[in-house]
Backbone:
């Protein structure tokens, strides 16, 4: 009932109410009914942010389903596992479960350095120290950005968190 | 020099300058309050202090609540459906609307001032409506607290999910115990007393009594959020929730101050100081969404984000 009300609201009643992520995914997959698709695309006319998001999602989808991308499946899986490992470490570090590392060296990669600075800007110095500590524990330096994204998603919202991630990655 | 002034004005007019504007206007109001108190003390004429609380004071409460409504609405709109804190910000928005309604009904409609349209009515009707308006204003306080309390539960959930939920410290337990004891004492002396020292029991009074237990729950949530954010540092998002914590703590302090002064338990200077606590509490409520919006605006604007990150890196380098 609530879901239907929201769908009706973003289509007809309130221009500020945006489509849900499920609608974006259905549109990017090309599974949307023509009538719904026309209404969905009509929303882009008044909402540049949604239009950009939808196009980015579709481009990513095309990239992943392209014939050459099949061979990348193992690499994507490996990256996914590494991201999961990084998230688990960051989560443990935020809870104070990781021991303090006396060797206080900064993150080696530029993206990780910027990620730690973004955490400091939004959450504070101690939070930045903890995420830096999380990447120091393993044998190799983990990618911090996907690991800190859920924290930003929760407190800033997914759209603003996506922007933060883009700014961190783009300017390196 | 004029270009510097123009730059300063432009800086204050920026959308993300709301925290600076709130802090600045609170300082100005408090300084005016000290001056009004001094004039009253020196001349013995209460018109100074009355004029201060009835005009700039009442307008400040309403302006802060109005700003809080506007900023929380913008914060809520920037969260997408399905985001963890979107329902929390919707409840915070409703809580701010209830606080604004309470401010309008109680501080504008309930006082005999030039600002009150009811004061221009014939004497009998004017006074009756003002009295009713002042009493009705009490309804909005528990409503606003209940909505904020439910919203803060969502924030605590977000903290727990992300592994940043802190634990209460002994000092927090002492503070919480003090406010709970005060509530229990108030209930035993006033609410549950067969003598009913506050007069006949009415629906308005019963709703008003729920404020103190709600404040205990809010204080517990605020202290947990304070411990969680204090564990992280002093970032933009942490500042938002620290502001809400400060607002709730100051509301508790103001509430206890009112009760203590009504019972003659505090010296006069401390009683006078407790009046001003409400202004800081009101400003802190407005500061919460102001910091959240600042964080969100910084996130979407690449230039601002880079500027903030550079400033952070520069501060790090200076510290070394």
Residues:
């Amino acid at each position: 009932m609530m879901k239907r009300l929201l769908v009706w609201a973003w289509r007809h009643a309130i221009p500020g109410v945006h489509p849900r992520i499920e609608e974006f995914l259905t549109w990017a997959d090309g599974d949307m009914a023509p009538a719904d698709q026309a209404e969905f695309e009509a929303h882009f006319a008044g909402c540049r942010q949604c239009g950009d998001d939808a196009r980015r999602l579709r481009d990513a989808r095309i990239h992943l389903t392209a014939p050459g991308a099949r061979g990348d499946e193992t690499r994507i899986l490996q990256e996914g596992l590494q991201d999961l490992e990084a998230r688990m470490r960051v989560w443990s570090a935020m809870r104070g479960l990781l021991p303090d590392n006396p060797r206080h060296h900064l993150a080696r990669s530029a993206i990780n350095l910027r990620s730690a600075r973004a955490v400091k800007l939004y959450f504070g110095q101690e939070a930045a120290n903890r995420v830096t500590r999380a990447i120091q524990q393993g044998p190799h330096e983990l990618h911090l950005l996907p690991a800190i994204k859920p924290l930003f998603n929760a407190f800033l919202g997914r759209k603003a968190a996506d922007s933060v991630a883009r700014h961190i990655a783009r300017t390196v | 020099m004029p270009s510097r002034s123009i730059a300063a004005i432009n800086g204050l007019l920026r959308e993300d300058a709301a925290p600076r504007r709130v802090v600045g206007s609170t300082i100005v109001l408090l300084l005016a309050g000290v001056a009004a108190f001094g004039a009253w003390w020196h001349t013995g004429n209460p018109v100074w202090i009355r004029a201060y609380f009835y005009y700039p004071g009442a307008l400040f409460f309403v302006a802060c609540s109005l700003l809080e409504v506007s900023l929380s609405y913008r914060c809520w709109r920037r969260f997408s459906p399905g985001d963890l804190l979107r329902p929390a910000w919707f409840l915070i928005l409703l809580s701010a609307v209830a606080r604004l309604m309470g401010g309008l009904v109680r501080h504008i409609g309930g006082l005999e001032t030039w600002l009150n349209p009811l004061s221009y009515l014939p004497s009998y009707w004017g006074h009756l409506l003002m009295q009713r308006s002042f009493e009705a204003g009490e309804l909005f306080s528990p409503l606003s607290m209940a909505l904020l309390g439910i919203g803060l539960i969502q924030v605590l959930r977000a903290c727990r999910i992300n592994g940043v939920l802190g634990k209460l410290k002994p000092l927090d337990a002492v503070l919480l115990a003090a406010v709970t004891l005060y509530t229990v004492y108030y209930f035993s002396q006033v609410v549950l007393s067969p003598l009913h020292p506050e007069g006949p029991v009415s629906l308005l009074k019963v709703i008003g009594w729920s404020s103190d237990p709600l404040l205990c729950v809010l204080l517990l949530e605020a202290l947990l959020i304070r411990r969680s954010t204090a564990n992280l540092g002093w970032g933009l998002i942490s500042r938002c929730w620290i502001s809400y914590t400060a607002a709730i703590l100051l509301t508790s302090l103001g509430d206890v101050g009112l009760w203590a002064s009504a019972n003659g338990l505090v010296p006069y200077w401390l009683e006078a100081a407790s009046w001003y606590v409400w202004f800081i509490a009101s400003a802190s409520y407005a500061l919460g969404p102001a910091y959240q919006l600042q964080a969100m605006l910084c996130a979407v604007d690449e230039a601002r984000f880079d500027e903030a990150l550079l400033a952070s890196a520069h501060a790090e380098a200076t510290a070394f």
